Amino acid sequence: MPLTGIEIFKLLPKTNCGECGVPTCLAFAMALAAGKAELAACPYVSDEAKEKLEEASAPPIRPVTIGTGERALKVGGETVLFRHEKRFENPPGLAITISDSMEDAEINSRLDKSNNLQYERVGLTLKSELIAAKCESRDPASFKSLITKVKQKSNAGIILMSENPDILAAGLEVCAESKPLLYTATIENVDKVAALAKDKSCPVAVKAENIQEIIQLTTKLEQTGIKDIVIDSGNRKMKQALEDQISIRRAALNNKIRSLGYPTIILASEMTDNPMMETLIATTFIAKYGSIIVMSDFQGESLFPLLVLRLNIFTDPQRPLATTEGIYKVGNTNENSPVLLTSNFSLTYFIVSGEMENSRIPSYLLVKDTEGLSVMTAWAAGKFGADTIAPFIKKCGIADQINHRKLIIPGYIAIESGGLEEELPDWEILIGPREGAHIPAYLKTWKTQGG
Length: 451
Ligand code: SF4
Prior knowledge:
single chain; 17% strand; 16 helices; TIM Barrel; Rossmann fold; 3-methyladenine DNA Glycosylase II, Chain A, domain 3; binds iron/sulfur cluster
């Protein structure tokens, strides 16, 4: 059971030194109990107290890592029901299914998709993380051979899928050091699968018919010392599966039921035969509250929207994605190149710089720090007006790199042109387009504007 604020307070040093960021140990204890502070913020907790406090300070959904190295996937660690309360912490992993009953060509094609389907967006590389390797042959040797192929061709995290502990053991012979997820422990096989998970220190998924059975299974695993657990509620009907996700998240967060405080796995691959519907199902569980989503296959047109949706939902709503303030060169600029200005909202930066690139006219892009806000929002918030832009233009050093004094501002802040001409008397302020898509056509007129 989690400790109360007063119980936590009794274990703290009670010196009220304030180094944890709040003025008193009591305030820190209350914040810890509410899941709003990290124990590591207090440097003076004794080891003995630390052990007792770890449970109280742990997030209500335990973080679990699958795989190792650069494609290791951390899921769980969630602390809120709704993104706007704080943020969602760890984006769900997306898995493609392969099976030992598939032809080699099909297996290779899916491994290629897992490796190569990736997309650049707002400066990030978006791609899937997991391979769900399924044993359909019931033959341990065949499964071992499949996992060997996966290991040879991919560094993705692996989900070993079988309810037969001997088959899971065969897969583990070739990938135990990669810390795969063992899927799955059930009421029938839990002792043997738990022994495998414990022996190889691998995370393990539990699957049952209902939440009560899930609690039985997770409790049993906890008693054997296994903490890295993933829950499959077993439902393959969309409505019930969604209800399960919400019940599990609420039970862990609101009712502090630790035995349900684990990430969850959704087998979208088993919920429909229709690829379009499968994608829609996956979108639902990216939003609420799947931690791993297993797809039957990946297609670019379905994977890309899922990756973008995931990025959007798991971006911290209080910290917009931002680009560093400064001068960016697009193409081989020289002292006659046009100079454009924009805000440092990452999406804005990538749209504007992409369109500048499309124009094939080498240009400078001045990115002003607007705390990650888009042009209009920053302007409305008083962070992108003449009074803040002018000092930036003066100090950024662009004047040393060009022999003209023409500044192209976004069309949405045309109203600032007069103020800018007053603040920057040496400069001519030109009104650029409102939409990024019109930048190439606009830049083609650069010469006619005397540039
Ligand atoms: S840092 Fe530790 S000792 Fe200092 S006020 Fe915070 S909880 Fe108390």
